[in-house]
Each structure stands twice: as structure tokens, then as C-alpha cells.
């Protein structure tokens, strides 16, 4: 009953629908999202609403964690 969703950039849009449907089905969602920099962070509040845990990374460390999302799984 737990899933991890990992993605970044424009690839996060379909992952939001997946996370939303999983939460509605009673699954615990842990989300790891990566972006190039702070200016490109998207859908943060939406993912917060459907995730038990949300980790956001930026390549340059300008927002939240520095590095790639997969490294925080």
C-alpha cells in the first residue's frame, strides 16, 4: 500500500494524476521531484496535498535539496 513516484521537469504532470488516483485508492504516496532550478519548480502544492512525503530537489541547490531526485529515494 505504498508507492514511490519519481520524476522531473515536464514529466511530472502525468505523475500528478497518478499520485492523485493512488491517494484516492488509499495508497500512501511518497513523491520525489527534480528540477533544474528554483524557477522551474511546478505543482509543489498539488503534490503536497496527495503525498505522505514530498522531496523536491534542484540540480543547482537553489531550492530544497541539491542533486537528483533519485538520490533521495
Write the layout of secondary structure elements.
Blueprint: E1 2-8, H1 12-24, E2 28-35, H2 44-50, E3 53-58, E4 65-66
Q: Indicate the structural class.
A: alpha/beta
Order of strands, main sheet, comes to 1-2-3-4
* Total count of strands: 4
The run of helices and strands is: EHEHEE
- Computed Rg: 11 Å
Main β-sheet description: 4 strands, parallel
End-to-end span in angstroms? 17 Å
- Mean pLDDT equals 97
Number of helices: 2
Low-confidence stretches: none
Strand content: 25-35%
Q: Helix coverage percent of residues?
A: 25-40%
Q: What is the 3D shape?
A: globular
What does this structure look like?
- The chain has 73 residues and is of the alpha/beta class.
- The protein is built from 2 helices and 4 strands.
- The two termini are 17 Å apart.
What are the main properties of this structure?
alpha/beta; 73 residues; 2 helices; four-stranded parallel beta sheet; single chain
Give a brief rundown of this model.
This protein has helices at about 10-25, 45-50; strands at about 1-10, 30-35, 55-60, 65. The protein has about 70 residues and is of the alpha/beta class.
Amino acid at each position: 500500500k505504498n508507492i514511490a513516484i519519481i520524476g522531473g521537469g515536464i514529466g511530472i504532470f502525468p505523475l500528478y494524476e497518478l499520485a492523485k488516483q493512488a491517494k484516492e485508492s488509499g495508497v500512501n504516496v511518497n513523491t520525489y521531484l527534480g528540477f533544474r532550478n528554483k524557477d522551474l519548480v511546478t505543482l509543489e502544492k498539488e503534490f503536497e496535498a496527495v503525498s505522505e512525503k514530498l522531496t523536491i530537489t534542484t540540480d543547482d541547490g537553489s531550492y530544497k535539496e541539491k542533486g537528483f531526485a533519485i538520490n533521495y529515494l
